[in-house]
Structures are given as C-alpha cells and as structure tokens.
Design goal:
mainly alpha
Length: 218
Amino acid sequence: MEISNIDISTLLNMIDTFYNNAWNRLTIILIVIGGIGGIVGVAWPILLKKFSDYRAKIEVDKVENNLKEQFQNLYDENVKLIEKETNKISEAVDKVISKKLEDVDIKINVTKGLIWHVLGNSEREGNQLESALKHYFYAFDFYFYGKDELNMQIIIKAIGIIYKEVKDSSFLKEIENRHIDLIKKLYEINENFRYSNAIDKIEKEFNNLKKRLKEDKN
C-alpha cells in the first residue's frame, strides 16, 4: 500500500494536533494541580493553626473547668469549716455569757437575801416576830436561788427559834404555806441526805408550834 504526500501531510498534522492538545491538557492539569497545591500550601498552615487553636481551646477549657470545680469544692469546704468554727465560737460565747449572767443573777439574789435577812434580824430584836419570820422566809428564798447554802442554814435556825416564840395563831396559815415551800426547796437540794437533819428539826419545831397554838386557843 502506498501512502500519498497528502496522506503523510495530513497524518503529520493530526499527530501535531494530538501532541499539541495533549500538551495543552497536561499544562492545564499541571496548572490546576499547581494551583491546588498552592492553595493547599497556603491554606494548610492556616488550617493547622486553626486546628491547633481549637485543640488548645479545648485543653484550656478543660483546665479552666477543672480549676473552677476545685475552687468551688474548696470554697464549699471552707464555708462549712467556717460555719462549724463560727458555731463553736458562738456556743462558747453563749456559755460564757450565760455563766456571767448566772453569776450576776446569783449575786443579785444573795444581795436581796442579805437585805431581807438584816431586816428580819432587826424586827426580831424589836420583838416583831411575825414580820421577822416573813422576812426570813423571803431571805431564805433569795439565798436558795443564789445558792448561798451557808446563809440558808443560818436562816433555817433563825426560823426555828421564832417558831418557838410565835404566839399569834392568826398568823399560822401564812406561816404554814411558807413553811411547806421551804421544806420543798430543801428536799430539792437534799443530795446525799445532807439536809435531812435540818428538815426533820424544822418540821418538828413547826409541829410543836401548831400544837402549842392549838392548845393556847382552847
């Protein structure tokens, strides 16, 4: 088979056209790839930085939340500790204040007892036995609440002495009520029976008083 000049020329043109087109395509592809590579080359550090920042933010948030939680726990524990210590201090202060008030109250009662005691002594010396006895009972009550047991014992003896001297039976009812209250108070503080003898003695003297006033009335 013989190839004509036209055919060869045409064939060469076709080959040239093919290679030109191929080369153009390759150039375009390389340009595209290069463009993509350029874009990626530029974008990659940005993306990497964004990702690193995101990871860093997550870590910072975790640390921050952890610190907040620890701080809150520490705060709650300290608040409870402060409240506990404050309550202890408050209770201690209340006890001190209560003790001081109790001491003041005791001193006031003892002072009032002394006033009635002195007045009763004065009336007894003036032979005002009924008034003296009434004021001795007042003094006993204040000594009782003032926990002054020494003066209580002195008053009990003084009352017993007047029981032997009272002659007015009209005063007996008031004496009896006061006497019963005195005995009741003595039983309240009769630990280890330390007031048993005093109770028995004052009861005996009071019963003798009632008996004597009854006989005098008859």
